[in-house]
Amino acid sequence: MSFKHFYRVRAWIALTCFSFSHFAAAQAATQAVPLSAEHARALGVRTSTVSATETLDVGTHARVVFRPDAQYVVAAPYPGIVPRVLVAIGQTVRPGQPLASYLSPQLFDARRALAEANSQARLAQQALVRDQSLYEDGIIAASRWQATQARATEAAAMARARRAEMASAGVVFAGAGDEGQLVASHHGIVSEVSAVPGARVEGASPLFRIVDPDALELDLLLGRDIPVPSPGERVEVARRGAAGTVVGVAPAGDGTAGMRVRASLERRGDLRAGESVNVTLKLRSREGKDAPGRVRVPAAAVAYWQGAPGVFVATDKGFRFQAVTLESTDEANAVVRGNLPAGTRVAVSGIGALKGLLAGDQ
Prior knowledge:
The protein is of the alpha+beta class.
């Protein structure tokens, strides 16, 4: 026998065994265990009724954090000196409000460059208007008219670049002495002041931190004992008057099986950043019309048959093993997905006896 033929035979055997095992699992998942009520009681089989609801409430913990856009830093645009600090920690500021005065040779050099660029742009625009009239009257050549257009475009671009540089510096010139002042660009509360009057600072050194106390989110780290919510599902902190919606789910990234969940708050109640609170996940029982439902059953009802989780559902003639998807479990309850309508009775004791009868029926 050639090696090629040998490997083909071995692959066929493996595929046959794989198909047989899946067929057996499917048979076990649908085959009923005939059992009378008297025999079930003798084996110690007891059942519990499944109660289905629109939402499934699951309690867990969350940390209150700032949204990524809730805080920003005002930094020194150039190396310089802070002569005066105009705000204090805890003070509410509005956009455009001065935070500190600022002196820097580079700042005044940038201002001079802006004035020069604006002047050049105005002159180029005047030349453009003049040469356009001369070109239309046939006094100048087309090449001169095109050169004037190019100079006007370059001058306007340079002026825009200089204005953008000054805007990014976050400095305005005001007061009798026309002094430079660092200003706030957002509404918020001053949470940190690093500027010291009279001290020299390097460029890009953080001087103020401003936060929006209303821009809060909930950060949840869920283990295997908590079902993972989907974006759009609700989160409530009932005792604190807060509620929100799940906006993102991602692996924790710390080497564990945990999932990190972010929820935006529509009502922040009296929550404060940094505290830990008890929250309730409002999980949808069914994602779609034909999707398997999500229900809570006693943890003792979950059984494993040929490696697949499931429950023994009571029927008129006995019990049948029904495979389910196990989402979470703790000592008392398990959350599963499967075709388990309200009123379905599942076995919660005598599971070993039922598995034995199922194995004997195979």
